């Protein structure tokens, strides 16, 4: 229909709501729902012969004061928490996986299927996982790489090659006993769980399994990691042990701080005259190199040989294998 001069255009808020509803459904974790936009002409003075509603400022004040009806999954009842967080705390999966499963309708709470992100639950409610989610989780793999010097653990940096590029059929260790058949799908969402810097070598774990990642690098991880570290002390590169003060070795075990935070106790002892063995239960950035620097040691070489119960063993540099079904960290 032809518009006459002076007709007001349609309210922008109506269009916004239709767009949100039809084109891009609002996720339940958005705490603010889209509101209607102001109509064209609301800022013009009211005509004397046609009383207008309250002024924009007053109307805005009225709207702000009006209580909003909370969305069902955002009702912050005492003692509740997000379903995805609870699933992660229970060790069922990672929070990312939990969100994916909820979106797919693979999670039931007290027998009710949940498909809304942000849903709050009580810790005592019964959580069940659809067999489809269990099958998807069972197909996830964990890869062990003997990372050589010169490769980065995660994303490519400054042109350096990321370690994941080593995961090819040609580089798979011939003595891999896992019996898992390689698939390119195993490369999707394969991420490092505990990094090694570019100058370090040894055991690097890449995993698709959020449970493994949480176990190795989660905030409450108790998995220890073992390193062999070749060092020099001042001008001494041979028989360093005889020149290094015993009290400095005690500091390496306990008493140092990094980033203004005290370090957890560590096991540090001499393997031979030039090589130290470190066992840590935390993993700050370049931690061992920085610890050594604080006591006057220079790191010549650093190799990670164990994470929990999984050892590097005879895995050759530049090759990889799967974590077997009977192995765990």
UniProtKB/TrEMBL annotation:
Disordered: annotated segments: 1-78
Biased composition (Basic and acidic residues): 1-30, 39-52, 59-75
Keyword Zinc-finger among record annotations: no
Single GO term (MF): RNA binding
Keywords in alphabetical order: Isomerase, RNA-binding
SUPFAM superfamilies: Alpha-L RNA-binding motif, Pseudouridine synthase
Keyword Disulfide bond attached: no
Entry's EC annotation: 5.4.99.21
Residues annotated as domain RNA-binding S4: 81-140
Record SMART domains: S4 (SM00363)
Catalytic function, reaction form: uridine(2604) in 23S rRNA = pseudouridine(2604) in 23S rRNA; uridine(35) in tRNA(Tyr) = pseudouridine(35) in tRNA(Tyr)
Enzyme class label: isomerase
GO biological process: enzyme-directed rRNA pseudouridine synthesis
Protein name from the UniProt record: Dual-specificity RNA pseudouridine synthase RluF
Species, as recorded: Paraburkholderia bryophila
């Amino acid at each position: 229909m032809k518009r006459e001069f002076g007709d007001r255009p349609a309210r922008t808020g109506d269009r916004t709501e239709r767009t949100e509803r039809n084109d891009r459904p609002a996720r339940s974790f958005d705490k603010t729902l889209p509101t209607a936009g102001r109509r064209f002409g609301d800022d013009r003075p009211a005509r004397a012969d046609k009383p207008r509603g309250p002024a924009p400022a007053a109307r805005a004040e009225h709207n702000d004061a009006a209580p909003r009806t909370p969305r069902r999954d955002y009702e912050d009842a005492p003692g509740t928490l997000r379903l995805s967080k609870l699933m992660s705390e229970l060790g069922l999966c990672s929070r990312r996986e939990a969100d994916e499963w909820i979106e797919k309708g693979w999670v039931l709470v007290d027998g009710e299927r949940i498909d809304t992100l942000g849903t709050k639950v009580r810790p005592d409610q019964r959580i069940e996982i659809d067999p489809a989610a269990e099958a998807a989780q069972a197909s996830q793999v964990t890869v062990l790489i003997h990372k050589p010097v010169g490769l980065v653990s995660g994303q490519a940096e400054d042109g350096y090659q990321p370690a994941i590029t080593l995961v090819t059929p040609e580089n798979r260790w011939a003595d891999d006993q896992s019996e898992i058949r390689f698939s390119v799908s195993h490369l999707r969402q394969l991420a490092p769980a505990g990094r090694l810097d570019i100058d370090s070598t040894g055991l690097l774990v890449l995993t698709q399994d959020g449970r493994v990642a949480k176990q190795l690098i989660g905030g409450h991880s108790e998995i220890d990691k073992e390193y062999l570290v070749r060092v020099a002390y001042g001008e001494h590169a041979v028989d360093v042990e005889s020149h290094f003060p015993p009290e400095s070795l005690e500091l390496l075990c306990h008493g140092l701080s990094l980033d203004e935070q005290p370090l957890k106790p560590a096991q540090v002892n001499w393997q031979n005259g030039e090589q130290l063995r470190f066992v840590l239960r935390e993993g700050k950035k370049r931690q061992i190199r920085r610890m050594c620097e604080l006591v006057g040691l220079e790191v010549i070489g650093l190799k990670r040989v164990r994470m929990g119960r999984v050892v590097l063993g005879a895995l050759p540099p530049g090759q990889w294998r799967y974590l077997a079904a009977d192995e765990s960290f």
